[in-house]
Design brief:
Blueprint lengths: L4 E6 L3 H13 L2 E7 L3 H11 L2 E3 L2 H5 L6 E4 L6 H10 L3 E5 L6 H14 L3 E4 L6 H12 L5 E9 L14 H4 L3 H4 L1 H12 L3 E9 L10 E8 L4 E7 L8 E8 L2 E6 L3 E6 L5 E3 L8 H15 L7 H20 L19 H7 L1
Parallel strand pairs: 1-2, 1-4, 2-3, 4-5, 5-6, 7-10
Antiparallel strand pairs: 7-11, 8-9, 9-10, 11-12, 12-13, 13-14
Helix pairs in contact: 1-10, 4-5, 5-11, 9-11
């Protein structure tokens, strides 16, 4: 029998709880400890999952009985926590985005490589069944060569009110593009199977939901010659929420609707709804299972630190293009104007 992985959770908010629920369903790991600066929340969460509580993540990563950590902190603190964990020899699953600056992303990747530990980025959209089915269909050439795609995530709201730390630019790393847009950036790069080579964009601040942009659109060019539109918004009514992508190919059209299904049609043929497997894991469970498998098999995870960096570079190129009014090549970004200046000590005071 393979020994169970002993895990620590860094963060005690909603995403950490989602990871804890997935761990309970999978039963592959033992959750040993939680690091959460809010004493009441941290102790309550740790008690719920039968784990020890620490106020400071440095105490958690110093524990010899912990082999791996999941980082579920505000985006600005991913790098500091991941670098501390890597230096302590812990395997790392870090929630998306990898970081809020390319410099921080590079530092995380370098630290993990130097320590010889796994660094996986939690782009959970890659693990949804309907997304995997869509990817397999696109790779099979079911609609021929992809020429154009449109990826839309509209996160509707009941009220015009800030969603906690995600509304704060210094913690989130931006507005809706860094929040939900990073999902679209990663899944578009994955689905298109090609790197982005240029971006033009427009961003808008329509409400007080977030400090930065709550509405944006980007036109993206790919090395394959294809192009895509990426649309993101927080500024829509709740019943107008939407999360889907449409691909236009040389031989047909394919649409994937998150949480729903996949359909496609070839030119001259009727529309076909594609069955989504009922069996198997989905979302956070599949993501965690892949992380554990990569560690046990001594291989790279399916979503690497470099993958996380590519998605971040695309989002940073969107910000740069919107600010300058000129196209931006994500590959040319040596550094971002949004470099995080938050220290680990500031993170411990703020989270």
């Amino acid at each position: 029998m393979v020994a169970r992985l002993r895990m620590g959770l860094i963060g005690g908010g909603n995403i950490a709880r989602a990871h804890a629920r997935a761990h309970r369903a999978l039963d592959l790991c033992d959750l040993v400890a939680v690091a959460e600066t809010d004493r009441d929340r941290g102790r309550a969460f740790a008690s719920e999952i039968g784990a020890a509580w620490h106020a400071d993540w440095t105490n958690l990563v110093a524990r010899r009985d912990i082999e791996a950590v999941t980082i579920c902190l505000p985006h600005a603190y991913h790098a500091a926590a991941a670098i501390d964990a890597a230096r302590a020899g812990k395997q790392i699953l870090c929630e998306k985005p990898i970081a809020t600056s390319l410099a921080d992303a590079d530092a995380m990747i370098d630290a993990a490589r130097a320590a010889g530990v796994c660094l996986m980025i939690g782009h959970t959209h890659r693990f949804r069944k309907e997304h995997l089915v869509a990817n397999d269909l696109l790779r099979s050439g079911c609609i021929g060569r992809i020429h154009y795609a449109r990826d839309i995530i509209l996160a509707g709201r009941e009220t015009i009110a800030p969603p906690g730390w995600r509304s704060v630019t210094a913690l989130n790393g931006g507005g809706v593009m860094m929040d939900n847009g990073i999902h679209a950036a990663d899944r578009l790069l994955w689905w298109m199977g090609s790197e982005a080579t240029w971006v033009t964009a427009r961003l808008h601040h329509a409400t007080e939901i977030v400090e930065d942009e709550d509405l944006g659109v980007a036109l993206i060019g790919f090395a394959s010659g294809a192009s895509a539109i990426l649309e993101e918004s927080f500024a829509v009514p709740a019943d107008r929420s939407r999360c889907d992508a449409t691909f236009f190919g040389s031989e047909g059209l394919l649409r994937v609707t998150t949480w729903s299904g996949v359909g496609f049609a070839r030119i001259g043929e009727p529309w076909r709804e594609v069955p989504i497997p009922e069996e198997g894991l989905d979302g956070f469970e599949a993501e965690i299972a892949e992380f554990v498998a990569a560690i046990r098999e001594g291989r790279e995870p399916s979503v690497t630190g470099e993958d996380g960096r590519r998605a971040l570079a695309l989002i940073q190129a969107i910000y740069a293009a919107a600010q300058s009014g000129a196209p931006c090549d994500p590959r040319s970004l040596a550094e971002t104007q949004r470099t995080s200046s938050h220290s680990r000590e500031a993170a411990q005071r703020t989270v």
